[in-house]
Amino acid sequence: MNTVVVTNVVKSYGRHRALDGLSFTAGPGVTGLLGPNGAGKTTLIRMLATVLAADSGTLRLLGRDPSAERLQIRRRLGYLPQEPGFHRAFTVFEFVDYVAILKEIVDRRARHDEVRRVIAEVGLAEVSGKRIRALSGGMRRRVGIAQALLGEPELVLLDEPTAGLDPEQRLRFRELISRIGENRTVVLSTHQTEDVAALCGRVVVFDGGRCMFEGTPEELRRVAEGQVWLSAERSGVLSWRTGEGLFRNIGQAPDAARLAEPTIEDGYLLLLGDAAVGVRS
Amino acid sequence: MTEWHVDDELATRYSGGALGGTAAASVEAHLLACERCRGSVATAVPEERLRKMWGEIAEAVDAPVPGPFERLLRLVGINEPTARLLAAAYSLRLPWLAANAVALLFAVLAAGIDDRWGLLWFLAVAPVLPVAGVALAFGRGADPAYEIGLAAPYSAFRLMLARAAAVLVTSAGPAFAAGFALLGRDWAVVAWLLPALALTALTLVLSSRFEPAPSGAVLSLLWLAGVAAFAVRDEPLAMFGTAGQVTALTVVLVSAALLFLRRDRYQSEDSR
Ligand SMILES: Nc1ncnc2c1ncn2[C@@H]1O[C@H](COP(=O)(O)OP(=O)(O)O)[C@@H](O)[C@H]1O
Ligand SMILES: [Mg+2]
Ligand SMILES: [Zn+2]
């Protein structure tokens, strides 16, 4: 069963089309929305969060229509915005508790138990009495994830949850997110191919508001199969010098080149590179 | 030590909470000295009861302590979750309430200086205070968790109205009292009330489309300019006469109708 079905969605800001006939589906597990800045990831996630409506096209979330049954969807949704705001004078506990009230967990004791549960789940139990303004960026991000887990939502939306984290934090986040995705649908956005490789069962690549690829990370990797070459000379649009002093080229074979195993990043760059030079459009 | 120990049956009754005062006390005295019995009591405690006890301890340790304003709200009968939601607004916290009181105090002092122009000063400023408070009580600019709240099931419209009502009470209430207590029992000291409601209601109506803070600021400036213009042209209190009050009342009623009809627009960003 697909938790999220997006069909032909268009969304414009003034004259600018942020989403231009986008379609994709997501089911249980972690689905990554991969695309460069300005691709429309945030616009799409805000739509999935029922905060924004599409100009045209249809969305089905958890089997419901967000324009008619918004409240029912919101009751089963967890959402981490790209730039979540916090009441900085609140403690971690107070902030998560505040969101828990907005999520209609009325009974005080039950609510506090749930707040404790999600705070422990993201590993912040020790700092739950600390003020948010005293936390590091990575810890604040975890507070953001904690509130998204309140009430065991079936659909969890995370907008760039790993942006701005150092490598060690990033690793812990991947662990956390893949754990969250074990028994529900997680849709996250990222512009990092490593995130996709590390934790997504499915990936949707998009750019300029259009879907360019939908499949598993392995399938994304194979997009570049037979098109990645190592050579002594630079060639083609996409090529860069690797650690071994050779150039890695994506696209047509340069002279005296050796075929290389593609990575997910190669597949991604190939898709975007095509878009950049207008081959596909 | 004595030969007496806590047997299984006693352990179960004790840990189940079934023993009376003296019996429980003597069991406890023994437990302090005897490790073996401590072990047997611990295993006799039912899982459920242990969990509950642990929950109570956690609750005592880390449950948030309500601030003074939140306690006041609870005292007047507002339920706990709503009190928390209200007290989170910037203009419903102590610093703002204090600033509000100071501004009011100055207005009242100014009003005391000279009867006509002074009163005008008070009447002009009193409506601006609730508008400013309301404008800082909700919306993307004023509420850090606005986007999270928008996607949550709790109605953003309801939250807005609840906070606006709380601001009206906390800023119009003191102004009302101050007017009567310090300026006398003339009807004129409450002539600001309908204009205050009208400006507040307009701020709410506009916030379906614009940020409340700039809307509130623009409305307040227009209001002050209007009061000044009337005062210069006619007589100082001209704007607060019958015609002015009827206009204000009309604005309140129309705004209320608009709010009701357009209530769904406050629940997402679709209409912006
Ligand atoms: N509120 C807005 N008003 C105008 N343009 C916007 C707005 N939000 C996003 N955009 C534009 O829409 C496009 C997609 O933005 P966004 O969804 O934020 O992309 P991403 O999250 O992938 O970086 C960008 O070109 C951006 O400038
Ligand atoms: Mg974004
Ligand atoms: Zn003993």
From TrEMBL, chain A:
PANTHER family cross-referenced by the UniProt entry: ABC TRANSPORTER, ATP-BINDING PROTEIN (PTHR43335)
Pfam family, one: ABC_tran
ATP-binding found in the keyword field: yes
Family: Belongs to the ABC transporter superfamily.
Superkingdom assignment: Bacteria
SMART domains linked to this entry: AAA (SM00382)
Protein name: ABC transporter ATP-binding protein
UniProt keyword ATP-binding, yes or no: yes
GO molecular function: ATP binding; ATP hydrolysis activity
TrEMBL record, chain B:
Domain of life of the source: Bacteria
Transmembrane segments: 94-113, 119-139, 160-183, 189-206, 213-232, 238-261
Protein known as: Zinc-finger domain-containing protein
Keywords: Membrane, Transcription, Transcription regulation, Transmembrane, Transmembrane helix
